Amino acid sequence: MKFFLDTANLDELKKGASWGIVDGVTTNPSLIAKEGRPIEEQVAAICKIVDGDVSAEVVSTEANAMISEGLKLAKIHKNIVVKCPLTRDGIKACSALSKDGIRVNVTLCFSAGQALIAAKAGAYIISPFVGRLDDIGWTGMELIKSITQIYRNYGYKTQVLAASLRSPTHVIDSALAGAHIGTMPFKVLDMLFNHPLTDKGLDQFLKDYAKAFQPQNA
């Protein structure tokens, strides 16, 4: 499974990229707004840090405007994936952009039926939101399982990107469910490293080595 960071913060991206395990980045208008720079400038800076797919979302709501905006975003860098919402206009834009060779991430997916529509429109990526479904009492991970099964049934090439992942358990369960990509905040990626037995074991290894080979104080 590919690991994407769901952030537009350059410091977080630099740290994540330094570990050598970040395959791409997802952004949205809220994340871009938090950084205080226009999307064109921010995603261009992101593309210099992470050499992988970088999703940049349109803010238009009408299909023709989405298409125009998507074409402009795609010209920023070869790694840009245009992000469109799963609305009727968004799917229309996805279909047009995909036919023009532009890779599209269809976002805000909350049902398998929506995911099927996106695949038929030629989406490069579909982004089902796990955590937000959990918030309303549904089981978000079941959606990942359903979409991956449907795509396998019919050979759709659309990649399933598990979004709104809020814990290491979400990441692991997404991988078990067959998601191609998991996108997560920096803090969740950082949490994947943690286990008390790793810390305890390393501490004991170093103590044993020091006892055997480091000179003792006279």
Placed side by side, the strands forming the largest sheet appear as 1-2-3-4-5-6-7-8
The percent of residues in helical segments reads 40-55%
The counted number of beta strands is 8
Order of helices and strands: EHEHHEHEHEHEHHEHEHH
CATH superfamily: Aldolase class I
CATH fold-level topology: TIM Barrel
Q: Bin the strand percentage.
A: 15-25%
Overall pLDDT:
97
CATH class: Alpha Beta
Uncertain stretches? none
> How far apart lie the N and C ends?
53 Å
The major sheet is characterized as: 8 strands, parallel, barrel
How many individual domains?
1
Describe the model.
The model has no long low-confidence stretch (mean pLDDT 97). The N and C termini lie far apart (53 Å). It contains eleven helices and eight strands. The protein has helices at 10-18, 29-35, 39-49, 63-74, 88-99, 112-120, 130-135, 140-154, 168-177, 186-191, 196-213, and strands at residues 2-6, 24-26, 53-57, 80-85, 104-109, 125-128, 159-162, 181-184. It has an eight-stranded parallel β-barrel with strand order 1-2-3-4-5-6-7-8, surrounded by six helices. It is an alpha/beta fold and 218 residues long. The chain has a single domain, classed as Aldolase class I (TIM Barrel), CATH 3.20.20.70. Helix 6 (112-120) runs parallel beside helix 8 (140-154). 53% of the residues lie in helices and 17% in strands. The radius of gyration is 20 Å and the shape is globular.
Structure at a glance:
The protein has 218 residues and is α/β, with parallel strands linked by helices. 53% of the residues lie in helices and 17% in strands.
